[in-house]
Design a protein that fits this description.
This protein is of the alpha/beta class. The chain has nine helices and eight strands. Helix 8 links the parallel strand 6 and strand 7. The protein is globular. The mean pLDDT is 92.
Protein backbone atom coordinates (compact mmCIF):
# COMPACT_ATOMS: atom_id res chain seq x y z
CA UNK A 1 0.00 0.00 0.00
CA UNK A 2 1.43 3.40 -0.95
CA UNK A 3 1.63 5.72 2.03
CA UNK A 4 -0.22 8.99 1.78
CA UNK A 5 2.17 11.92 2.38
CA UNK A 6 1.12 13.86 5.47
CA UNK A 7 2.83 16.22 7.91
CA UNK A 8 3.54 14.31 11.11
CA UNK A 9 5.83 17.01 12.54
CA UNK A 10 2.83 18.46 14.41
CA UNK A 11 2.11 15.21 16.29
CA UNK A 12 2.70 15.52 20.04
CA UNK A 13 1.18 12.17 21.11
CA UNK A 14 0.15 8.83 19.62
CA UNK A 15 -3.04 7.13 20.81
CA UNK A 16 -3.35 3.48 19.85
CA UNK A 17 -6.25 1.07 19.79
CA UNK A 18 -5.34 -2.35 21.18
CA UNK A 19 -7.08 -5.33 19.54
CA UNK A 20 -6.13 -5.63 15.89
CA UNK A 21 -3.91 -2.56 16.10
CA UNK A 22 -1.21 -2.91 18.74
CA UNK A 23 -2.01 -6.53 19.60
CA UNK A 24 -2.86 -9.34 17.18
CA UNK A 25 -5.80 -10.92 18.98
CA UNK A 26 -8.19 -11.34 16.06
CA UNK A 27 -8.37 -15.14 16.34
CA UNK A 28 -9.11 -15.06 20.07
CA UNK A 29 -11.80 -12.39 19.60
CA UNK A 30 -13.42 -14.41 16.83
CA UNK A 31 -13.41 -17.61 18.89
CA UNK A 32 -15.13 -15.86 21.78
CA UNK A 33 -17.84 -14.29 19.67
CA UNK A 34 -18.47 -17.56 17.81
CA UNK A 35 -18.86 -19.42 21.10
CA UNK A 36 -21.10 -16.71 22.57
CA UNK A 37 -23.25 -16.59 19.43
CA UNK A 38 -23.69 -20.36 19.55
CA UNK A 39 -24.95 -20.14 23.12
CA UNK A 40 -27.61 -17.64 22.02
CA UNK A 41 -28.63 -19.22 18.71
CA UNK A 42 -27.22 -16.26 16.78
CA UNK A 43 -25.43 -16.59 13.47
CA UNK A 44 -21.73 -16.03 14.33
CA UNK A 45 -21.23 -13.90 11.22
CA UNK A 46 -23.80 -11.43 12.53
CA UNK A 47 -21.84 -10.97 15.76
CA UNK A 48 -18.49 -10.73 14.03
CA UNK A 49 -19.80 -8.15 11.56
CA UNK A 50 -20.57 -5.58 14.25
CA UNK A 51 -18.28 -6.41 17.17
CA UNK A 52 -14.99 -4.99 15.87
CA UNK A 53 -13.98 -1.85 17.72
CA UNK A 54 -16.98 -1.91 20.07
CA UNK A 55 -17.48 -2.97 23.67
CA UNK A 56 -19.05 -6.36 24.35
CA UNK A 57 -22.00 -4.62 25.99
CA UNK A 58 -22.63 -2.44 22.95
CA UNK A 59 -22.56 -5.46 20.64
CA UNK A 60 -24.79 -7.58 22.89
CA UNK A 61 -27.31 -4.76 23.09
CA UNK A 62 -27.50 -4.59 19.30
CA UNK A 63 -27.78 -8.34 18.84
CA UNK A 64 -30.25 -8.93 21.68
CA UNK A 65 -32.33 -5.74 21.84
CA UNK A 66 -35.04 -7.42 23.92
CA UNK A 67 -32.74 -7.74 26.96
CA UNK A 68 -32.94 -5.25 29.81
CA UNK A 69 -29.81 -3.54 31.13
CA UNK A 70 -29.13 -6.17 33.79
CA UNK A 71 -29.40 -9.03 31.31
CA UNK A 72 -27.17 -7.21 28.81
CA UNK A 73 -24.52 -6.81 31.50
CA UNK A 74 -24.66 -10.51 32.35
CA UNK A 75 -24.45 -11.56 28.71
CA UNK A 76 -21.58 -9.17 27.99
CA UNK A 77 -19.72 -10.47 31.03
CA UNK A 78 -20.10 -14.00 29.69
CA UNK A 79 -18.61 -12.95 26.33
CA UNK A 80 -15.66 -11.35 28.10
CA UNK A 81 -15.18 -14.44 30.26
CA UNK A 82 -14.62 -16.42 27.07
CA UNK A 83 -11.72 -14.10 26.20
CA UNK A 84 -9.82 -13.60 29.46
CA UNK A 85 -7.77 -16.79 29.41
CA UNK A 86 -7.62 -17.32 25.64
CA UNK A 87 -4.13 -15.91 25.13
CA UNK A 88 -2.26 -18.76 23.44
CA UNK A 89 -2.00 -17.02 20.08
CA UNK A 90 -2.19 -13.38 21.20
CA UNK A 91 0.96 -11.65 19.92
CA UNK A 92 2.26 -8.13 19.26
CA UNK A 93 1.03 -6.78 15.94
CA UNK A 94 3.60 -6.53 13.15
CA UNK A 95 5.88 -3.60 13.95
CA UNK A 96 4.39 -3.00 17.41
CA UNK A 97 7.63 -3.34 19.35
CA UNK A 98 9.46 -1.30 16.72
CA UNK A 99 6.89 1.49 17.07
CA UNK A 100 7.02 1.46 20.86
CA UNK A 101 10.82 1.70 20.74
CA UNK A 102 10.61 4.69 18.39
CA UNK A 103 8.01 6.44 20.56
CA UNK A 104 10.26 6.01 23.58
CA UNK A 105 13.37 7.13 21.70
CA UNK A 106 11.59 10.24 20.43
CA UNK A 107 10.14 10.92 23.91
CA UNK A 108 6.73 11.03 22.21
CA UNK A 109 3.88 10.45 24.70
CA UNK A 110 1.56 7.57 23.86
CA UNK A 111 -1.42 5.70 25.24
CA UNK A 112 -3.62 2.71 24.56
CA UNK A 113 -7.34 3.45 24.23
CA UNK A 114 -9.39 0.26 24.06
CA UNK A 115 -12.99 -0.93 24.19
CA UNK A 116 -11.81 -3.87 26.31
CA UNK A 117 -12.08 -3.81 30.10
CA UNK A 118 -8.94 -3.43 32.20
CA UNK A 119 -8.63 -7.15 32.96
CA UNK A 120 -8.68 -8.13 29.31
CA UNK A 121 -6.49 -5.22 28.21
CA UNK A 122 -3.88 -6.01 30.85
CA UNK A 123 -3.88 -9.70 29.90
CA UNK A 124 -3.49 -9.10 26.17
CA UNK A 125 -0.86 -6.39 26.48
CA UNK A 126 1.03 -8.67 28.83
CA UNK A 127 0.84 -11.55 26.35
CA UNK A 128 2.24 -9.19 23.70
CA UNK A 129 4.98 -7.97 26.08
CA UNK A 130 3.85 -4.36 25.82
CA UNK A 131 3.61 -1.95 28.74
CA UNK A 132 1.50 1.11 28.03
CA UNK A 133 2.40 4.32 29.89
CA UNK A 134 -1.31 5.18 29.90
CA UNK A 135 -4.22 2.77 29.46
CA UNK A 136 -7.79 3.99 28.93
CA UNK A 137 -10.33 1.14 28.97
CA UNK A 138 -14.07 0.72 28.66
CA UNK A 139 -14.33 1.09 32.43
CA UNK A 140 -12.85 4.59 32.30
CA UNK A 141 -15.48 6.12 30.02
CA UNK A 142 -19.24 6.46 29.92
CA UNK A 143 -19.46 6.14 26.14
CA UNK A 144 -17.45 3.78 23.95
CA UNK A 145 -16.23 4.20 20.38
CA UNK A 146 -17.34 5.74 18.04
CA UNK A 147 -17.80 8.31 20.80
CA UNK A 148 -14.53 10.28 21.15
CA UNK A 149 -14.54 10.26 24.97
CA UNK A 150 -11.73 7.71 25.33
CA UNK A 151 -9.40 9.57 23.00
CA UNK A 152 -10.25 12.93 24.51
CA UNK A 153 -9.55 11.57 27.98
CA UNK A 154 -6.22 10.10 26.89
CA UNK A 155 -5.15 13.40 25.34
CA UNK A 156 -6.14 15.29 28.48
CA UNK A 157 -4.24 12.89 30.74
CA UNK A 158 -1.16 13.21 28.54
CA UNK A 159 -1.49 16.99 28.58
CA UNK A 160 -1.75 17.19 24.78
CA UNK A 161 -4.27 19.02 22.61
CA UNK A 162 -6.44 16.42 20.79
CA UNK A 163 -5.73 18.09 17.46
CA UNK A 164 -2.05 17.32 17.92
CA UNK A 165 -2.64 13.61 18.53
CA UNK A 166 -2.43 10.74 16.06
CA UNK A 167 -5.07 8.05 16.60
CA UNK A 168 -4.09 4.62 15.23
CA UNK A 169 -6.97 2.25 14.52
CA UNK A 170 -8.01 -0.85 12.59
CA UNK A 171 -11.80 -0.39 12.78
CA UNK A 172 -14.29 2.21 11.59
CA UNK A 173 -15.78 2.95 15.05
CA UNK A 174 -12.31 3.81 16.33
CA UNK A 175 -11.45 5.94 13.32
CA UNK A 176 -14.76 7.77 13.75
CA UNK A 177 -13.89 8.36 17.41
CA UNK A 178 -10.50 9.75 16.46
CA UNK A 179 -11.97 12.09 13.88
CA UNK A 180 -14.66 13.23 16.33
CA UNK A 181 -11.92 14.00 18.86
CA UNK A 182 -10.29 16.26 16.26
CA UNK A 183 -7.20 14.07 15.97
CA UNK A 184 -5.27 12.97 12.89
CA UNK A 185 -5.94 9.31 12.11
CA UNK A 186 -3.79 6.42 10.93
CA UNK A 187 -5.72 3.47 9.50
CA UNK A 188 -4.77 -0.19 9.19
CA UNK A 189 -6.34 -3.12 7.32
CA UNK A 190 -7.17 -1.19 4.17
CA UNK A 191 -9.29 1.43 5.92
CA UNK A 192 -9.05 5.13 5.17
CA UNK A 193 -7.35 7.63 7.45
CA UNK A 194 -5.07 10.63 7.16
CA UNK A 195 -2.31 8.01 7.05
CA UNK A 196 -2.88 4.53 5.57
CA UNK A 197 -0.66 1.78 6.95
CA UNK A 198 0.07 -1.86 6.23
CA UNK A 199 1.68 -2.27 9.65
CA UNK A 200 3.01 -0.33 12.64
CA UNK A 201 6.58 -0.56 11.43
CA UNK A 202 5.67 1.87 8.67
CA UNK A 203 4.43 4.34 11.26
CA UNK A 204 7.68 3.96 13.19
CA UNK A 205 9.58 4.92 10.05
CA UNK A 206 7.30 7.88 9.30
CA UNK A 207 7.62 9.27 12.82
CA UNK A 208 11.40 8.86 12.77
CA UNK A 209 11.62 10.68 9.45
CA UNK A 210 9.29 13.45 10.65
CA UNK A 211 11.36 13.98 13.79
CA UNK A 212 14.57 14.28 11.85
CA UNK A 213 16.41 12.58 14.71
CA UNK A 214 15.90 11.95 18.42
CA UNK A 215 13.70 14.43 20.26
CA UNK A 216 15.09 16.21 23.27
Amino acid sequence: MELKPVDLTTIDAVLLDMDGTLVDSDAAVERAWRAWAGEHGIEPAAALAISTGCTSEHTVRRLLPHLDDAAVAVSAARELELQYDDLSDVTPATGAHELVAVLERLCLPWAVVTSADVRLATARLGAARITAPLLVTAEDVAHSKPDPQGYLQAAEQLGVTPGRCLVVEDAEPGLAAGRAAGAMTAALKGLTGDVCLDNLGQLATLLTDAAGGPRV
